[in-house]
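Example record for the data management plan.
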Amino acid sequence: MMRNLCHLCNSEHANPNTSAAACLGAAAAESELEAAFDMHWQRLGGRPLTPEYRFAAALVGGPGRGLRARLDAAGLHDWRFDRADLGSQVAVELEGGTWTQGRHVRPEGFAGDCAKYNAAALAGWLVIRLTGDMLRDDPAGHLEPVIGAMEVRRAQMAMVLGLADANHG
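Corresponding structural encoding:
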């Protein structure tokens, strides 16, 4: 007998084509890809992440009055990461629509993503890009290294901050 596995979590459900919200117990999610990521991330024990983190706003003094003018003056846009670990400066970008000619793979969208990722790298961020196929086919194989990178970078940042404090004390 053939098993019907959920397309999001590879678990058996009454309906293998259940929605992301149903698969996650009706948890709010902006997209099925984000819901699938959040579910796998939690199952693997990843630390809580900040959704929709406005990293460019943080580079110019944070959100608030005059943000657009500050971003414009810095040559930035109000870019956001899909998920971010602020303590390690590791961001996760979930690239949807890779098989349907979505925004991320069309010329203008791709160029915009490149500008965003370059600005993030120049600000010290490590940006990990994941597709729906990656989360469907081998979630642990793609997410466990991200969890590891966050831990390594947190340790490195703590060491650097400790050295900086020692040099000023």
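Summary line stored alongside the record: The mean pLDDT is 83.
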